[in-house]
Amino acid sequence: MSKSLQAIRGMNDILPEQTPLWRYFEGTVARLLDNYGYKQIRMPIVEFTELFKRSIGEVTDIVEKEMYTFEDRNGDSLTLRPEGTAACVRAVLEHGITGGGQVQKLWYIGPMFRHERPQKGRYRQFHQIGLEVFNLDGPDIDAELIIMTWRLWGELGIRDAVKLELNSLGTSESRGHYREALVEYLSAHHDKLDEDSQRRLKTNPLRVLDTKNADTQAVLVDAPKMADYLDDESRAHFEGLKARLDAVGIPYVLNPKLVRGLDYYSKTVFEWVTDKLGAQGTVCAGGRYDGLVEQMGGKPTAGVGFAMGIERLVLMLETLEQIPEEISRQVDVYLCAFGEEAELAGLALAERVRDQLPNLRLQVNAGAGSFKSQFKKADKSGALYALILGDDEMAQQVVGFKPLRGQGEQQSIAWDALAAHLATCVVQG
After folding, report:
1. Distances from the Cα of 88 to the Cα of 212, 252, 286, angstroms
2. Which of 80, 320, 344, 406 is least surrounded by Cβ atoms within 10 Å, i.e. has the fewest?
3. Model confidence over 365-411: pLDDT tens digits?
4. How is the chain split among helix, strand and coil, in percent rounded to 5?
5. How far apart are CA 224 and CA 415, in angstroms?
6. How far apart are CA 394 and CA 254, in angstroms?
7. Whole-number Cα distances in Å, 120 to 10, 110, 124, 315
8. pTM score, two decimals?
9. Could you give the residue ranges of the DSSP H alpha helices within 76-207?
10. Cα 392 from Cα 394, distance rounded (Å)
C-alpha cells in the first residue's frame, strides 16, 4: 500500500475553524499600523543564500543549522527566507526607496522557514508580522515601535500576560570591546561551560549570554556587563528610550543578557516575553541595526524594527480565552428556500440584501433539501437567524424570520423591509 500523503513535519495546515482567529489578529495589527502611518511591503519568500549569510552572520545558528537552502536549475544557491529584515533591506536598496535620507516606515506579513525541532508554538514554517523603519536614528522611533506593541496587547486583551525586556548592545566598536572582555572572562572558566557555549565562545561569544544551561548561567553571574562598555552615544540613546517609555507609562525590565540571535543588531534590543506558553516565551522581538544597510552594500542608513510570531500570539489568545465572540460565528443569517421558484427568488433577495448590508454574513442554502435538513444546516452554520422561503411566503412576498440562538417567535417580514429589519436584529443580536 502506498504511503498516504501528508504535510512535512513542522509545516502545518491552518484549517477553516482556525482561520477566523488568524484573520482577526492580522486585521487588528493591520489597522493599528495603518493608524500609525506604516505602509505594507511584500517580498519574495526565496532569496539568494548570500543575502542571509551577509546580513544574519555566517556563524549564527540560523545560517549554520536552520536554513532551507537548495541549488536551483541555474546552479544558484537559494534559501527560503528564515526572517524578514534582510529581505526588506534588500528590497529597499534594490528599488532605491531609502536614498537621499527618505524615511520609510514599512511592514510585512508572511511565512518564514527554519529547520528547528518542532514544538508547541514553534514550527519549521512559521508566520511573522514585521516592521522596519529606515533613516530615523533617534530613540523616539525605537519608543514608537514599543508603544505600538503595547497598544496592540491592550487591544487584544493580553497586556497583563506579557513583559518587556530591554537592553542596549552599543555600537559595533563598543560591542567589540565588550566581546574581548567577555571572551577573556569565559575562557578562564572554559571547563565550566556547556558544550554549546564552548563552541559559541569561538564563533559568537555574545550568544553565550542567553544560554539556558544552568551551570553556564552560574558562571555568567560575575561576567562583565555590556552596560559598563557602552559608548556615550549609545548610553544617551538608551536613556532617551527609557525616558519615553516612562513618560507613556510602559513598564519594562532591564536584561543585560538580552543579545538576540542575529549579528546585525546594535544599540536598542527588546523582547516581549510571556510565561503563558511554556518554554516558547518570546512573542515579539527586535531592535536597532544601524550598520546593516551599509553592510549589504548601501550607504550608511539608520534602521530599527521588530517581528512578532503569529502562531504564538494566536496561541496566547486561545490560552487566555481572549477570542471575541463575533469571530467564532461565521454566519449571521442563513436563507432556506424550498422549491425552484423559491430558490430563484431567494438568490435575488439575498443579493439585494447584500447590496444594502455589505457587512452582513448571509449564507444561502445550496444543494436543496427538505425542511428538516435545511434547518439542520442553518443551525450547524452558527447563524443567529434563519430566513424561510416556501410557497406561502412566495405568494405573499414575505420571508419567514426565525431566531436560532435565543428567544422569539417566527415572524413574517416583507421583502422590501428585510434589510432594515436585519440591520436592527443582527446588531442587537
Report:
1. 31, 28, 14
2. 406
3. 999 889 899 999 999 998 999 999 999 999 999 999 999 987 778 99
4. 45, 20, 35
5. 77
6. 70
7. 10, 19, 11, 9
8. 0.86
9. 85-95, 139-156, 172-187, 195-203
10. 5
